[in-house]
């Protein structure tokens, strides 16, 4: 499963981040999207284009197209 498919309020564990753009890959890792870290979907924008997630203890807004590259443990 990928982050963009996570349901509101659900918690998962990040398996890996594999963004094709190296700068976005580095930015996600710098924001705490590390393998083994817990992540929770807090809210989705009305048309689902952006998500607010809690990564560890940090709230982060992420575009749905970028969230598609954050893989979660099943």
From TrEMBL:
Coiled coil: none annotated. The keyword Glycosyltransferase does not apply. Gene3D superfamilies: 2.30.30.90. Residues 1-74 form the Ferrous iron transporter FeoA-like domain. InterPro entries: Fe-transptr_FeoA-like, FeoA_core_dom, Transcriptional_repressor_C. Transmembrane segments: none annotated. Keywords: Iron. This is Ferrous iron transport protein A. It comes from Marinomonas vulgaris. The lineage of its organism: Bacteria, Pseudomonadati, Pseudomonadota, Gammaproteobacteria, Oceanospirillales.
